[in-house]
Amino acid sequence: MAHYLGIDIGGTNIVCGAVDEAGRLIGMRKLATEADRGSADVVSRIAAAAEQLRRETLGEGRWTAVGIGVPGFVDHERGVVELAVNLGWRGFPLAEELAGRIGAPVYINNDVRMYVYGEAMAGAGKDVSHVYGITLGTGMAGALVQEGELFYGGGGIAGEIGHIPVPGISFRCNCGLTGCLETVASANGLVRQARQAMEQGRQTVLADWFPGEEAGRLTAADVTRAWDAGDALAHEIMDRTGRALALGLTAAITLYSPQMLVIGGGAARAGERLLAPMREELQRRLLPAYWNQLGIRTAALLEEAGVVGSAIYAKRSAERS
Ligand SMILES: [Zn+2]
């Protein structure tokens, strides 16, 4: 029986998961990334964790193929990490380095693509063939899966709507543009909007919870908590963010016509607080015939999506090569 290893590399942790032929997660191991110890050290520790996990879950069995999601720009065809700022990797041939240590073919891709791929193949989108997934985390990212394959587009950024300027947004973005969707529609974006309102002296329960300097500790989960407490500012922020998201999504989803829109990442935990205004605005803007058949769900696999997606991506890639 074939077994696949999925690896999700994050800035803080690396999660390794053993996945069977049916796409089920049968074992996991987690280790600290500690990227400052250098790429060779990270590779050695991943190889050791993979070997421990193999013994625990497969016994004498071997990995059929390995898939890895990396936070950064990845040349998936060559298996090279072109740039992963948080890891300090540039032009790093990760697939080749790790394949030698693990003794199985290694396929790498971008971490958000692997997350969306996992949700499309085994999570919220598993019952349909065309899925568009976005993650609302530190920033906003997205990816498209059509009939079991990731769709990249010729320029390689298909689905990345986070840097579309949306009317009504005036924050400057890290990318150099102003008014990008991700400056509000992300976990950081919710916090950014709350802090700006607090600095302007808006009355809000958040100002009671985080007086003065403590505003720096505010997270997206606190905005959700304030919403639950009936705070007017929190309601305004969720409403504005949901509607901005709909503005950014309207053209993108009309163009790709997915059957399922999957919303993941930290800010997706806000659930219907954020999705209700988004749905309302989308319904006003989309062709009724399409709106009626479009599914919208929050991610089902959450933390496991990246690992499961990477493993299924490895299976798919190995079968093709
Ligand atoms: Zn931007």
Explain what this protein looks like in three dimensions:
By secondary structure, this protein is of the alpha/beta class. It folds into 2 domains: 3-118 and 303-320, Nucleotidyltransferase, domain 5; 124-299, Nucleotidyltransferase, domain 5 (2-Layer Sandwich), CATH 3.30.420. 40% of the residues lie in helices and 22% in strands. The chain is built from 10 helices and 13 strands. It has helices at residues 39-58, 94-102, 111-122, 187-199, 205-209, 220-228, 232-256, 272-285, 288-291, 305-320, and strands spanning 3-9, 13-20, 25-32, 65-70, 73-75, 80-84, 89-92, 106-110, 130-136, 140-146, 149-151, 260-264, 295-298. A 5-stranded mixed beta sheet has the order 3-2-1-4-8. A hairpin with a 4-residue loop joins strand 2 and strand 3 (25-32). The longest helix has 25 residues, at 232-256. It is globular. Residues 163, 173, 175, 177, 180 line the site of zinc ion.
How would you briefly describe this protein structure?
This protein is an alpha/beta fold. Helices cover 40% and strands 22% of the residues.
